[in-house]
Design brief:
This protein is 39% helix and 17% strand. The chain is α/β, with parallel strands linked by helices. The chain has two domains: 207 residues, no CATH class; 205 residues, P-loop containing nucleotide triphosphate hydrolases (Rossmann fold), CATH 3.40.50.300. The strands form two sheets. It has a nine-stranded mixed beta sheet with strand order 9-8-10-11-7-12-13-14-15, with helices on both faces. The chain is globular, with a radius of gyration of 28 Å.
Length: 564
Amino acid sequence: MGFGRRSNDHSDNGSAALNGAQPVMASFGGAETIAPESDDKTNCAELAERVADGIADRNDAPDFTTMSRADVAKYSAVITEKVLGKTYFRLNLLEQREVVSNVVNRLYIAPVRDEPEETDDDAELPIAAVWGTNDRMAATERILSSSSVTLARNKVQPVLFERIDISAALTLPRDELTRQISDIVLEISHEEKLQLNKAEQEDLVKVLLDEMLGLGPLEPLLADETINDIMVNGHNQVYVERRGKLVLTDVKFRDDRHVMNVATRIVSQIGRRVDESSPLVDARLEDGSRVNIIIPPLAIDGPSISIRKFSKKKITLDVMEKTQNLSPAMASVLRIASRAKLNILISGGTGSGKTTLLNAMSQMIDHGDRIVTIEDAAELQLQQPHVVRLETRPANLEGQGAITMRDLVKNALRMRPDRIILGEVRGSEALDMLQAMNTGHEGSMSTVHANRPREALTRLENMVSMVGVSLPPKAVRTQIAAALDIIIQISRMRDGIRRITHIMEVVGMEDDIVTTQDLFTFDYTGEDAAGTIQGEFKYTGVRPHFSTKAEYFGLERALLEALR
């Protein structure tokens, strides 16, 4: 084998032992799944019948006699979601799976052949029925759902890790590693007298590779583009956020040690660590997804991993306008505000979409500008060619060498930036950010956690006081009023939809008070039968204070037209 084998008593080929790294992944194991049947079988059957009838009425329905059961399952999953609409998403995952299973049973026509037909276990419904149509996810779900294959994996995995040199294996391309792992899995299956068909062997190899190269049980969730957040609460509870709603999945880890192995793999990729001396850490995945990890003794019920996934779809203001996150007039004003180099603060709660909006706003920045981004864990997705990305660094084992956000803001001022973008302001760096905005670095942007625009101003004032410098409140507020031009408030509402609820201008000072004016607000009017919040984005009718700056950039006419 290209990466070599270790000698063992079970092998008949007398392979020589290798002097390589120990099987560091030996403690990894795939997810255990629980797949009880739906309690509401009658309802699921009725829904499946409605879907089957809908498919029968379609002129573009395929010829199911020529399709495999797996292909019918993929087709059924997509059509079920379209036919049932919101009703589908009110079902839990197991009910969704039950409906699609019933649809497949109605549509699939087994071919006539001499060889034995697939059993229901062999034709296990792929995860595409619940998560989408990704083949890799489907393969992962099949192995996790089949009890016989799960048992086979538990037998094959420890033997596999004894026979291979993990360090050498990880250097191989995935295709070559897949081929070689397949050979060993086949060999072990024969030795252990495991009854696996070809499809099950292929699925087993894919999941083992996910354990070796990826994040094990989390891989199918990471591959699902409809999931925004993944939340691991100990080894036996994994939630995801889909379309703004939290859903409990049937994905489980083997134990807390398994979760720790995944956490360690995540942080080690960016040179960080998570252990008792450093029990909480911010990190990122290779695709840019943001990760927070906290472990015992701080996390009482076991290690917790929170992943904010990197969106492969480019979210722009145009996209947000189409999905009714804001009105067309608001989108136009925000484009002008970004091009006119206004200093912008985006305010909102956790998971409200602050970073997504910041990315969308940043796309309006001129490609000739030099941009410096500063983040705890790099996740901004700027498209401009001239971008310098800076990231904080935690202290080492001796408690030395930490580089904070404030250190990076100070250093950024020496880098001749046209714009400075802070992923989030949360501490004493607020003072340095305000000073940067007041010293010629126009067009800077940042985010802050706050529930209302005025609260964002109060939070900034409180963060400046954390510096330890004794400044009169009026002096701090004067700096804030001079630095900021616009505060955008974004909120994730109870129907799961994110909406921009306020666009507020910072006008100036009146006595000791920072004066502001609302340009746009979202007025709640009720909700429809499906639970979707109804409301109206309203322009308040005031003339924007920044119209003078818009005129300087030749954008005043466009601004006035947007506000008509």
